[in-house]
Amino acid sequence: MASLYHLSAVLLLSIIPFTTSTACGINSTTAITTDAQAFSAIEFDYVIVGAGAGGLAIATRLAEIEGTTVGIIEAGVFHDGDPVIDVPGNVGQALGNSTYDWSFETIPQPGAAGRILTLPRGKMLGGSTGINNMAWTRASRAEYDAWESFGPNNGWNWDGMLPHLKQPVDVAPNRTGLPLVDFEMYEPTFEGFSGPVSASFNAWYSDVFSPYLAAANSSGIPSNLDPDAGTTAGLMNSRSNVERDTGTRSYAASAYYCSHASQPNFRVLVNSQAIRVVLKKATLPGLYVATGVEFVSNNNTYTAMAKKDVILSAGTIQSPQLLELSGIGNSSILKRVGIEPLIDLPEVGENMQDHVFAPAQYQLKPGILTFDALRINATIAAEQSAIYAQNGTGMFSGTDSALSFLPLDLFLDNQTIGSLIDSFDTVVTENSTSVFRKAQYEIQKDWLRQGHVPQSEIIMWSRGAAPLANESYITLLSGVLHPASRGSVHVGSKDPLERPVINAGWLEADFDVLVVLQTLKFALEIATLEPLVSMIDSRVLPPPDIQDDQALIEFIRENAASASHPMGTIAMAPRGSGGVVDGNLIVYGTTNLRVCDASIIPNGIGTHLQSTIYGIGEKLAAMIQDAQNTADCDS
Known about the structure:
The protein is an alpha/beta fold. It has 17 helices and 27 strands. The protein has two domains: about 350 residues, FAD/NAD(P)-binding domain, CATH 3.50.50.60; about 170 residues, Glucose Oxidase, domain 3 (2-Layer Sandwich).
């Protein structure tokens, strides 16, 4: 199993006989261009690389500043009206398809039985928000507060982030006509109601949804009725980024881009790949100014010029790659591949963190309706297709939304928790090689001791991860949220079009494997509880003959997959302790090269990332605008 995204790719596209209408209407292509020569002739105020959550959020907000010009370079295109992207029931269909997905691969992962695993990343306008599983969640207050402990100020904490976590979103009340699920309302104080991205509860729930909730509650997991308020522990019914009036995915392209597509000061160059940031020496010794971005379009090389800032929003994998291609990074690595080092920042590409999950899958008894029906029952698929085409509701508008975020003391005894802390201490002793890493581990150890911050997650899918024909399933995915393992992303050569070398480090630390093990065992217990157990025919994964811990650990190493939540490779922290960007997200050694994506997260957060990345983009845009307003007042 390559990734959790791939585990969800079980519905057949052939059962969707319709397309969706365009999201932007007549404005859908106003700002989009493929004319690289004309694009490079414009001297923009801001040039942004990558049109994902962070890139489009900051680009469109900067474009709202009067007299400001913004250009985005995007390797993919806008899939406007494409049912593969727009229809929630098609989740997973874009994965592994080069039209939509970069389909990155790791080097062999020793902690994952030596497997080479894929890491999906969206290659399109909208980035990975166009191919993800649409969960709209936040991290806890403590996790955001931890960011500022690494040194940056400027409000990189819960209180400073909350306004910008609310800003991207327009949460929808229940408008489906269905009876309310028990916890289908959150506290309005912590929600946004005027942002471009729609977030809503489902219009359809599978037959296993409510029985699973009841079984999870019986196991000791309390319901969390307000997980956006800063405390995420417990069982939640997550909102999804679905526009409930149409039943379509609401993502960075349909939300941020479409609302600004007609602005004359905003341009998006598609089908073009950035290959290097152009740097020149600044007036102050030892500093460089970013003057533009080199990119390739139709096998020709061009340069987009920036008068103010260059902003990398290419993601946790490609933003560090671009820095290294530009001469910024570990000098030894750069010299080894023939790149002239300009700025020595040894931690560029290091510190990669991700969430890793292992599956428990159960075959259900006949007659239980789940998303698998769209795969195995042509009659139901046709009926649901007609319902969706008529009013955007039904199964094709739905997603799986039962998520449990678990502190260890919620499901483990003190002795087991103590054993896990001992395992974590071993990792700390062996791997605290830098001031930055020590600071990370101190925070994580404190979270383990206090017991408030979730360390693992169980995701319920009402479908099969590895389905057999003509059968319906429930899958429980058990994962680690704050791994001790760290990975890296680096250039393998100076060829800018060559894929980077990704060593994700998945499950290298025994602590991570043991957390997944304990969470998986807990998920297996949930499946033995009523009313869920009465719906189950048999266990499929792990195979029923696998019972003892050692066999389960082998199963985890051979079957665990990434949640595709990579972060941390351009960490926001003081330069002396291993940081790459400061509190203004400016790359050290430069005056105006910034990074705006999940790579800046210094210590990993235990949540699904998209809402946080939008928030980072919104916050950076506000910081830039405030600085510009101050400068205007002083002039």
